[in-house]
Amino acid sequence: MTDAKTGKTLTLKKKSAAASDSANADRPKRAGARARQVAQLERQREQQRSLQAPAAEAAPMAPPPARQPAAARKRHPGEPAPEPGTRPQPGHLQDADAAHFGARRRHEPSRAEIFPVFTPCPQGLEDALAAEMQALGFEDAEPARAGCRFHTDWTGILRANLYSRLATRVLVEVAHGPARHEDDILDLAMDTPWERWFGAEQTLRVDTSAIRSPMQSLQYCNLRAKDGICDRLREREGARPDIDTVRPDARVHLFLDEDSATLYLDTSGESLFKRGWRLEKGEAPLRENLAAGLLALSGWDPAQALMDPFCGSGTILIEGAWIALGVPPGIWRPFGFERLRGHDARHWRDLKDEARSHIATQLDSPIVGYDLDPAAIDAARANLERAWLTPDSIRFEIGDARSVPPPAETGWLVTNPPYGERLPSEEDTGLWRAWAQNLKQNYSGWNVNIISNDMDLPRALRLKPLRRYPLYNGALDCRLFSFEMVAAGYRDK
Ligand SMILES: C[S@@+](CC[C@H](N)C(=O)[O-])C[C@H]1O[C@@H](n2cnc3c(N)ncnc32)[C@H](O)[C@@H]1O
């Protein structure tokens, strides 16, 4: 965000935010031009910075693992097996590690190490996330509970952070072992080479989650993990990191199940759904990665028109514009890995430059949002501006879903209307009936996708869904209902 803010003050002239009243106004001509212009300026600034940057910035991003007494520990992912006959002496380990580390810093970094990665996501998006990761080149990506697993090198980890629209975080599995007692967690944390990622110069936060764990207190488990990390670093380096739960440099996640514990290094920092553009929240906004997930599940073709008649603060449509323009979701936000030891700032800049060079300058089809509430439209327009999109890229207008026309002959309507519990039931029924009437009369050829926790919504709309995808919006059990509006004789329920 700092980068984004600086770029913003450097550059742009605002266009008038006034939107056309006509539903058939001209299609946006240079939607991504603003994003691209900012990207170019940012690239120039980064090039200047890199000229001034000290050579140390080019340090290897993932220093090799510190060697430890072979007998005392479990092996960690990606770590080579010890050569037969070699048995490092504990008394010399720290010196040997330091020499090894120093040598690697002076020479070419090894990026060959492969890490097991877990990327959590909102429940219901697992298959879509695995497909996204495969499309990003992570061929062994497969869906897991509330996430997806795959293997990749460190560059792949940076790319997953930069490009994934559906993941909530990118976690690197650094240790896994049996855990039937809290002290097992302490041992596992003590056996893990944290010093390759962070030390006393970083602040630390540990989070713990569990499924069917027999442990009495997750808080105590969390403390054991923290103790293990800090004890190891104090023993190895003479000092331990301070704990900072608000803005830590390094984050570790402990996950417990019936009989085992897994420790993950969080490479994302703040959750990935925080793209950096949202300040204006509106009423019950969707998280950005859930909005991107709805677009993925709906099968929206980014060359086709997109509409949200209950757009609120504009989340679905702004995500849609970024997808259509190829704006990488992480391009303007900071990441946790930037604050870890050995971060290779130059390599990261190169990856971002490459990503920026693919941002398109214009949208092929209209993207249009309506909301009854003028404050929501103000919020959506402010968010559009912060997302580096030109005011004409997405048309946000005050309008009533019950009467607004479609912006093109065919397209995708993807929306998150107010949930039933927010509305008095008579008002609710009236709204659904009138909206369904508008859809049936004016939206033939449209693909309509609605997320709701009201399982009776199709009945209230008197429309039969082609598909219903179970998914969670936070803690709310929802469905994404997909309808195809056909020209005549659409089958009422
Ligand atoms: C759940 S919120 C949408 C939140 C949005 N997805 C976001 O991320 O900000 C529902 C929105 O529907 C709007 N709304 C309610 N009745 C409407 C109507 N008849 N026509 C258009 N918008 C309406 C509300 O003002 C509210 O902003």
Automatic annotation (TrEMBL):
CDD domains: AdoMet_MTases (cd02440), THUMP_AdoMetMT (cd11715). Residues 1-10, 49-60 have a biased composition (Low complexity). Keywords: Methyltransferase, RNA-binding, Transferase. Residues 156-267 form the THUMP domain. The keyword Metal-binding does not apply. PANTHER family: RIBOSOMAL RNA LARGE SUBUNIT METHYLTRANSFERASE K/L (PTHR47313), RIBOSOMAL RNA LARGE SUBUNIT METHYLTRANSFERASE K_L (PTHR47313:SF1). This is Putative N6-adenine-specific DNA methylase.
